[in-house]
Amino acid sequence: MKHLLGIEELSAGDITRLVDSAVELKAERGNHSVQPLAGETWAMIFTKSSTRTRVSFEVGLNELGATSMFLNANDIQLGRGEPIKDTARVLGRMVHGAIIRTFDQQDVVDFANYGKIPTINALTDEEHPCQILADLLTIREKLGGWDGKKIVFFGDGDCNMGRSWAWASKRLGFELVIAAPSEFQPQAEFMERLGESPVLVTDDAIAAAENADVLYTDTWISMGKEAEAEDRLKVLAPFQIDDRIVGLANSGAIVQHCLPAYRGKEITEKVLEERQDEIFQQAENRLHAQKAILVELAAGR
Ligand code: CP
Ligand code: NVA
Predict the structure, then answer these.
(1) Nearest C-alpha to atom 6 of ligand 2 is from which residue?
(2) 7-127+285-299 placed in CATH 3.40.50.800
């Protein structure tokens, strides 16, 4: 693999190999026999806020021997209008890899094409592949794997997380239900691109929760959508993960949230606190999954 631009670009074999590698890296943490990125510098260009992604990449790069260089997009010339392709051509001659969080997926694609260095999508409006790989690791740890499991995504099904989950379901073949009001269901154009898949879209949150193995949610107001907050909170209210939804799921079901969580909105305070152990295990797994991505891309150069 040369880049990680989205789950869409991965095969089932790629995904499984990355999760397997994350399991191994997690087990040997603090005791790595080799540092495949020793002596390297990786740039992290972020246009949007981040806690988990930023910290896990900085720690992961350090543990694999590399130095990280955090570049707030507004502090570099990119923020004053320098094209992404020029930024990429400069950085591509100086650093060994790039991790980018921004709005437009095309910017990450362009960076990869012009920079010619391993490039990782650390969240765009289109996809959040690093999060999905950490989530799959957590599902493997907690449930033994995803085969035959019913994963239900509640909330804004037309955001990066809903789309990355849909690609994961298509590639790996597990059942994914997206429970969302009609305004926030994946758009027809996306479903067409997805093609034949095990993804079911519904506006019935109750039916979706029945016999679920994973109850998954994300903020209702993704970064960049703040102006729509009032409307979103109203329309999405019936899709909150609460005691009733949890009660309908299978007895061993887990609750997952990519975080940050907004209590009383997409999830109740009670459910979040009762399930904090599995939710923060999921957050920790960002580190292990991303180390697996870094090792894979270093090997693919
Ligand atoms: N889940 C996630 O990507 O968190 P951050 O926005 O804090 O990086
Ligand atoms: N859908 C959210 C994910 C945050 C990690 C957003 O894009 O803001």
Answers:
(1) 222
(2) no
Residues 6+ apart with CB under 8 A from 171: 7, 10, 11, 12, 15
Residue minimizing CA distance to atom 3 of ligand 2: 222
> Is there a common fold for 7-127+285-299 and 132-283?
yes
Q: Please tell me if the CB atom of residue 124 comes closer than 6 angstroms to any atom of ligand 1.
A: no
Residue 139 in 3-state DSSP? helix
- Cβ–ligand 1 distance for 290 under 6 Å, the answer no
Question: Given 3.40.50.1370, 2.40.400.10, 3.40.250.10, 3.20.20.210, which CATH number is that of 132-283?
Answer: 3.40.50.1370
Task: Order the strands of the 97-101 sheet from edge to edge.
Answer: 67-72, 41-46, 97-101, 119-121
Q: What angle do CA 62, 63, 68 make, to 5 degrees?
A: 15
- Residue 50 is predicted with a pLDDT of 98
Q: Which residues line ligand 2 (CB under 6 A)?
A: 123, 128, 159-161, 218-219, 222-223, 258
Q: Where exactly are the structural domains of the chain?
A: 7-127+285-299, 132-283
User: For residue 117, what is the DSSP state?
Assistant: S
Hey, what amino acid is at 95?
V
Q: Which ligand 2 atom lies nearest to the CA of residue 52? A: 5
How many angstroms separate the CA atoms of 204 and 254, rounded? 20
Q: What are 15-18's contacts with CB under 8 Å, separation 24+?
A: 15/133, 15/136, 15/168, 15/171, 15/172, 16/172, 17/296, 18/133, 18/289, 18/292, 18/293, 18/296
What are the tens digits of pLDDT across the range 15-49?
999 999 999 999 999 988 889 999 999 999 999 99
Query: Stretch 56-67: mean pLDDT, rounded?
Result: 98
Q: Which residues contact 190 (CB under 8 A, 6 or more apart)?
A: 158, 163, 166
Instruction: Count the neighbouring beta carbons within 10 Å of the beta carbon of residue 11.
Output: 11
Do the beta carbons of residue 248 and residue 213 sit within 8 Å?
no
Cβ–Cβ under 8 Å, residues 42 and 99: yes
